[in-house]
Please model this.
Amino acid sequence: MAVEERHIMHPVRKRRLTIVLALFAGFAVAVSLAVVALQENMNLFYSPAEIETGKAPVQQRIRAGGLVAEGSLERDPDSLKVRFVITDNQGRVPVEYKGILPDLFREGQGVVALGELNEDGMLRADQVLAKHDEDYMPPEVKKALEESGRLKEGGDYPAEGMNHGNSGSSGT
Amino acid sequence: MWQWFHKLGSPKWFFGIAGRLMPWLGWSALIVLTVGVVWGLLFAPADYQQGDSYRIIFIHVPSAYLGQSLYVAMAVAGVVGLVWRMKMADTFIASATAVGAAMTFLALLTGAVWGKPTWGTWWVWDARLTSMLLLLFLYLGVMALRGAMEDPDVRARASAILVIVGVVNIPIIKYSVEWWNTLHQPATIKVTEAPSMPASMWVPLLICLLGFHLLVAWLILWRMRNDILLRERRARWVRAWVLAQ
Model:
């Protein structure tokens, strides 16, 4: 066994393995640095808190992501115009949009709105996307959970779904 | 264990063992996939939000998972090929690339089809979708690189290096949904926690996942056997095997 092992880990092979690992490590470091440098741009959207603190550029097309605040949705009775507020429980950003909303759109749902931020901090959106969370359940289960009060109305799980720092999960 | 490692390096031994494994893999893949897909598409309950459109998960998740895990397996083979100059490692890379590319493409396609009704868009340049597209380009890059090279040794070394370097993308795909704001949701099935879906949904999903693994193993063994025959076409045992057919 010992002889076999020495044969497998011959000095030449050991050197090759070191070279391969060094090559990989070097590349990984380079990519990590690039990704960290691009950190800001890697995010698809700004959170309402970031927009309120002025991190998002004004009068430039940006995406804003958050939950549709409860009770904030106003539909114009004569047109497709809607107004709502998106929130991340820290900041609030009013959004105005005209068009067809995705099926999953409703209060308490995570959405991403693409548009221009005006000086008053209102986002004039031309596209609204619904964000889906990682929870799946049959309608009956959802109903049972609501009846037993275990699922808060507009529950906290979609909020968790909006949050990229969501639990140390792994796997697919 | 080292003896096994040596055997794995022998094309003749591998050809024989793969030939014996293949019928088992092929039939079990067919049965498991049929059970998983029929269960998932017809009998699993609908989702409370998405209705029936969530059922694409039974194809999307297994193909996305395999697109990534095949790439990691190719990188391991790449290291073995570079360090131990094992020919079978290159055979594996040659055979797995197209299968991995097909899985990645299927994941992107099913994701787009699901994204349209759920999110409201086919495509968005978020970190998860973009890094997955990069994975597809890496697979295509390995295929193009291999196609452009004549000398088998140079080809093996060049494609192994490309595969190893590209594996950096895999953790980026996996953690993109946690590190950054993305439209894509975090993982539903986790190794460390209970899945965030009921058993009536995740059991068929797990069966589909197993079925996809069997199917991919069968496909790759098939392609590896072809690759061995082509490479060893001058060997006496290949001539004897061909004549026996």
In short: Helices of chain A lie at 2-8, 11-37, 39-42, 48-52, 139-147, 157-162. Chain A is about 35% helix and 25% strand. The mean pLDDT of chain A is 78. Chain A touches chain B through 53 residues (CB under 8 Å).
